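Please produce the structure of this protein holding fe (iii) ion.
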Amino acid sequence: MLYIGCHLTSSKGYENMAKEAISIKANTLQFFTRNPRGGKAKAIDPEDAARYRETAEANHFGKIVAHAPYTLNPCSAEKKTREFAYMAMKDDLERMEYVPGNYYNFHPGSHVGQGIETGIEMIAAMLNEILTPEQTTIVLLETMAGKGSEVGGRFEELAAIIDKVSLKDKIGVCLDTCHVHDAGYDIVNDLDGVLEEFDSIVGLEKLKAIHINDSKNPCGARKDRHAKIGEGYIGKEAFARILKHPKLQGLPCVLETPQETLAGYGEEIKMLKEMCE
Ligand code: FE
Ligand code: FE
Ligand code: ZN
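Below is the modeled complex.
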């Protein structure tokens, strides 16, 4: 089963996102839990969430992905920024229980010169403070391009965070194709090798979701500029291999390409599905 969808805006609620997804023949979706630049979250309407759950079930949706704000940085040097990270993740995870059993993805953080080891410690400390045995949401560390002082550009860094987290069944990884490519993993010419490396370092059972993005920069550029599928350095053929890979079946695949319209995402989804036939 191919679960494919795109990033949608959540401002009109969960049910509206499900309808938008269905209109472009998507069967998963992603959304920001609050303004991506930070700030306060909109209150959840329990009835809207219930209508979403019904619609998603009736249309055989895969798991969906909530995306934390970019400003969430548990390894900031600023106390205020760290406090926002704890508050936002705790609050987002409580809200996610209205759509139980899905994923919450976040950028692990930027250590801003404090060093990668310190960054890893601080990220794990937040997760150990916030994750609960009762939660039904699995929190995903997103693979990063490794620009600036980003933590998570190497599989070893993600493995080190997971290693320090007590509730390991509440944590997973979301692989962003543009990010891993920009971080230097050659998913175009050696997808099997990259997946083997991921498996030996992190464990493929930890891989829960994929962000499907082409890249405006060559492999190893450490840039993180997304391109539309087929308009970047990764290319259509590589995406067909990714989506058809036997080890990647059943994972929600979410487009975060620079499309201006919902119809644009619809075209991209149609093209990707055709490539997989
Ligand atoms: Fe992201
Ligand atoms: Fe991403
Ligand atoms: Zn990105």
